[in-house]
Design goal:
Layout lengths: L2 E4 L5 H10 L15 H7 L1 H6 L5 E5 L2 E9 L2 H19 L8 H12 L5 H4 L4 E7 L8 H15 L4 E6 L4 H9 L3 E5 L5 E6 L1
Parallel strand pairs: 4-5
Antiparallel strand pairs: 1-2, 2-3, 3-4, 5-7, 6-7
Length: 198
């Protein structure tokens, strides 16, 4: 039995657990990091808190098993993070502390807080992150969650949405292409930016 419901800030712990459990191209990333919650600090929790109305939770008989979090306005979201999200995390995770390489890279990103270029946000102002536990992957729920978000964004008058995906996650890239996303850029670290006009 599955249920799909709006997300709320109270879902934070569940979203963070799912983010870690899917953080290695859809597989569990916990063993790759000393502090795997860094993944959620970067790519899940701030979205849930900044714009919970665009978040969706999927639950099955074992509880929350997937989520989609998003923002309709990436520029405004990045300003929100700069004011309300990054400062406390930067104090908690100082750059100079000793860490394994994988954690160090995430902490570097946390301190860098890159700004999405206007060449992307002008055409595709929204962005999303979606993760489903392995037991729900390949069931059609990912498509359902994204189309639900697309409808919400259209109601807000948003003209496009983008996302980032690991270049090694070929399954996800193929999935997004089937949903009308196209590759529009490659990041310095090789990450693929995909976008869809609405």
């Amino acid at each position: 039995m599955l249920s799909i419901r709006p997300a709320a800030p109270a879902d934070r712990a569940a979203v963070e657990e799912i983010c870690v459990a899917t953080g290695d191209d859809g597989r569990d990333a916990a063993d790759r990091y000393d502090d795997p919650t860094l993944l959620a600090h970067l790519w899940a929790t701030p979205h849930l808190l900044a714009d919970p109305a665009l978040g969706t939770i999927v639950e099955d008989h074992n509880g929350p098993a997937g989520y989609l979090v998003a923002t309709a306005d990436t520029v405004a979201f990045e300003r929100w993070c700069a004011q309300h999200w990054w400062p406390a995390l930067r104090q908690r995770y100082p750059l100079q502390a000793e860490r394994r390489d994988t954690d160090r890279e995430l902490v570097r990103l946390l301190h860098a807080s890159e700004v999405t270029p206007a060449s992307l946000t002008d055409r595709y102002p929204a962005h999303l992150h979606i993760n489903l536990l392995p037991r729900l992957q390949g069931t059609g729920l990912g498509r359902l969650l994204i189309e639900r978000l697309v409808a919400q964004l259209r109601q807000r008058g948003v003209g496009g949405v983008h996302l980032g995906v690991s270049p090694t996650n070929t399954r996800a890239i193929g999935f997004y292409e089937l949903l009308g996303f196209a590759r529009v850029a490659v990041e310095d670290d090789g990450g693929v930016i995909m976008a869809r006009a609405l």
